[in-house]
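Hi R.,

Here's the chain you asked about this morning:
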Amino acid sequence: MIFKESLKIFREATPSETANKTDLDLDYDVDDSINYAVQTSPKDKVQATFDEIITKICNKTLDLRNGNSRAVFLADYSHVLDERTRVDRQTFLHIAASRLAHSTAIRFAVRKKGHLLQYKDVNEKTPLHVAIAYGNLAFVDAILKEVNGAEMDILLRQTSENGRNCIHAAIHHFLDHSYALKLIEGASNTTLSARDKNGLTPLHLAVEYHRSSASQLSLVKALIARGDAALDQFTIDPPGLSVYEYHRYTREKAHVGHQEAKAESPLEILAGKIEDQSTLVGGRRALDELPVNQTTARKQQPLEKCDQRQEPKTDMSPEIHLYADSIQQEIKLYYLRSTFESAPERNIRDQLSATRFLYGANIQNVNLSFDFSQGPLTISQESFEDSYRHMVFDEVLRYVSFRPVLLQKPPGPAPGSRLAKKLAQTMKEDQGPNDLVFFFNWLYRRNVRHILKVVVHDTEDVPHTDKAITDCLSKFEIETLSWRKADMSSQTLFNACRGLKEVYLRWSGDPSILKAWTEQDGLLRLEKLERVYLVWNKEKGPEAFHKVTSAVEYLQSRLNQAVEEINAARRTITKNSSLVEPRKPILVRQSEIGVSTSKRLKDTASPANMSVDLRKRRIQPNRWLGCIDRFADELQNVKVPATDTLVLKENIKVAVIDDGVDIHIESLQGKVIGGESFDRTYLDGNGTSPYYISGGGHGTMMADMICRVCPTARLYVCKLEMHPDPDGGGRQISAESAALAVMAAVRQKVDIISMSWTIQQTDDNQSSITALQDAIRAALDAKILLFGAASDKGAVAEIEYPCSFDRRIFRIGASTADGRVYGPSGNPQHLSFIFPGHKISPRSPYLEKGLPIDSEEKSGSSISTALAAGLAALVLHCIRLGVIQAEMETELTGRCSSTAVRLSDMEKARDFYGMRSIFRGIGLNEDNQRFIEVWKRLDGPARRLRSPSGKSVDMTGLEIIAGLARDLVSGIADR
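And here is the predicted structure, written out as tokens:
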């Protein structure tokens, strides 16, 4: 195939151009001669002529190093060089690429017939493709010397029949490392990020596990430096893998292949499909892979000059594993670092995209950051560990952030005791706060070793001591530090994190501090330091601005001068100055902050104060909630017996898709098992707002209501992106984030999804609504129960998502305490059910541990939706216990009652129609308001669980719940 646009550049030189262009003998290289016999088919005159030329060159009867010989050559053969062979559609350059190792002849042919480089043979290969496949370094070298700039990139970009360009080919065929690097230098970002038919970029190929070596690591670095857009590309086969995931995929495949098929070719095992399935001869491809003439049998000799390629290691040696680890870490660190930068020519890179890049669907729920910037002001060690027990961290975190926090210490010895006196005697005078040491030690225990950015909002009046800062940070590799402590000493920085690349320094205004920072034993001791940000408080006005501007100029000047002195000293010490790696200049900038806390912060709502507020609060009686509370209290005491049935081992999992959940709330501690944030509006410069922080408290209350109904439920939290409503009607939910959240819940295999919100379709969000529809369809196909809130605007007048998409989504409205529909929820005939949603407040807004929850009464269908999701979780949990009880009875007696709850009942209850039948069977109110009167089914079991009497005196709690489960599943109607 010929690309006409490309040929405008690679065209044949005109006679006048040839005459004007200097063609000296000195331009060409001295060749090693390789002679071999050539057999041709008389039927193809072009083929015969090409073979004749190559024979003469190899036999030295044609020496193109001489100007006269070149003139004779053009006179004899110029007319045929533009021709192609009949069968293979190959040009002379194709033949030379596969058979000729004479750089002079190749350079001459390229110089005179450069346009032929764009021509493709029957296999869609250019001459450079062929040369790379044969490892013909003489041909590649000639291309590098004769072609450059845009022409080189156009040449490298051409693809063969499998969609691979020349950079793909260089990596796939293990082209000599130095030549591969030169080709990469000549390629654009577009060429380096191009995908083949399987969706693999050159970087995907380069990171394959079996290729791992020291030289391959440098190749990977070069590919990233020149074409990091490849990091935004994903594979087609295997589907949807980033460069990082593909590396891990080939690593797993290598280990499996090594264990199961040691006798097979490792290249076939690890690389999957080998291009053209060629024969390997002497560790490389046979020369007749691309024959000059397919109809003639020829015996060709190898290109001795070209046999310098690196071949894959076939063993699973420690060496290959070590270099594979280095390649994996290089990819990970580069991508994570790039999330702190913005580039208009590439895709958005942030924490959300980084999670996708490293872990795909992230089924294991690995976290790339830890943000405590909005956590409680005081917290105990026990409460903190309970709240975050579920979190799994990568070894490398993008950032860690802490607010000023007081760690509640365990009770100390009694005042006046011998131990108290001894502790008082050992206290050092300079000992200050060290609360954060516990938190950083906790991160280290959770396998964190490398943190790209650490942000600590310390207090100004009593900041952490230098020793505490060192104890916090020294065990980690930290690249950027912003510890809000004024006049941080250089010695502390060196002791705490000597690998710093960036540091944010708060300056009090003392000139001596600036001078100390610029001394040889100051910031310059940090060998990797590249940037210094001088932080100033913009609230202090123009005077502070001018002062810090002068300080920045002073620091920049002094540090640059010191760096020059260091480099000069290194050159003097080292005899060969070219081997000296100079120290990079340190850039100094200023950074603004807002008003900072000037005093140690304290909780404004203490347990005592809150208890007073609770006593003043008038709680509206609600029979529905009262019944649920009593039953839930007793249900918690019924232990779940061990079972071998996989689907019964885990608690019911509910996805809470909202504005996040504050997991420090006492009622939620230990119940959040994971989550993900899809909120990209977080403007602190670090990343997405974490799922364990609620933007407005809404999601926290929804989670509290779900666990109020079903205290054994486990929550998977998905945080949505929200924007202010331009009409002033509260917050609008991003449909894109909703679609991502629903899909995340599907991948986590939750049982129930609670969506206490509505989204309307607009002209701006049509594509996102389509994605949301696809996600909901996936959830329904996965047999997940979906609960959505009805609009609180009265009658349904327009399409609203999620409920309008499919009738198998429970549309939940709000009711008053007496079971009547709450006005804004509209006609109950348009709703699936109504649940309490008028003047609802948390049952326990504040307990001894954790944060307070908003204790004000709330109204709306969002609360009702959470209660409905909680009731569905409660039903599934009871049925689960019923199935386990039936298993135990069967194991004990050898038979199973005909009325026993079975796994099939569990499956029916997981279906929309099955759960709808159960809800109806619990008992609807008589006036057809679709209000579920739960006391009809739960009051009795609650009493028996609390105080067994009468015929149930010998019944265990498990048997009582199993009886309830039998009643519930009996209401499932056949469809």
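One quick note: The first strand starts at residue 280 and ends at 281.

Cheers,
M.
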